Amino acid sequence: MFTGKPIHIIYCLPIFLVSVFFGCSQKKTHIDEEALQELTDSLPEAPEDQVKALTEVEDPDSVDPAVLGRAEGTYIYISKPKMRLYVVNRKDSVLFSCGIACGAKKGNKEEHGDYRTPEGRFRVVGIYESTDWIHKTRDGRKVKGCYGPYFLSLATGKFAGIGIHGTNAPRSIGRRASEGCIRVNTNHIIYLKQNYAYCGMRVIISGETERLPEFIGLGAEDRLTPAQIARLIADSIARVAEADSLRRLDSLAAVKVAEEKVATADSLAATRIATDSLSATREEE
Predict the structure, then answer these.
(1) Does the predicted TM-score (pTM) go above 0.90?
(2) Mean per-residue pLDDT, 47-72
């Protein structure tokens, strides 16, 4: 006999799935809040702007629409395989490039404290002077200067405290060395901040095996074919040979000038000897 129970199951299933979905979402939010609280507690003596920059989680799409017109122009592309940062304009021409250090562990960031740099499309949501910011090291020490003079805070939509900043460890550039941020040398972060960075600027961080896009200008050497490399080497050798030839010509010219000077000096000396001899003969007479 039909009891109607299958109908109740069908009606209850969507409610069950929605409950599971929201339950998972709430759990994830709770985990993020715990991570933020842990980060905040670790910086009791940090400047207020540092706490703000390192603990606020923002959505990349929440940037003020007024800046998006400019944001869609010049942007930052960070290549993990090349360990380089590129500032690129709307025509895909590279305006500036420098080396970086990124997360100590490879792969996309999955959770707070996993020492990975997040991958994807983000935006700059804050530009801070970070000279006096405090960094708590793994052994519990509190050190100033680790962030360099400037910190470009990124809205990743999920993780707090991710940004592009300077460093007091220049030897780390080119290596997997950070806790998730992107480090550049001090002079480079200063140049980046003064000439290109602005709130709303797009920042693209590549995957571990993602190829460098077809940029124009700086970085083109990363995409040269073997034939192009051979041609560049041949041109370089030709330029060196030409320079050597010019140096040899200059040397020959210098030798010729020196010989002419010697010949002139010898001629003057012979003339003087002859004159002195003639004068002595006249005196004897």
Answers:
(1) no
(2) 56
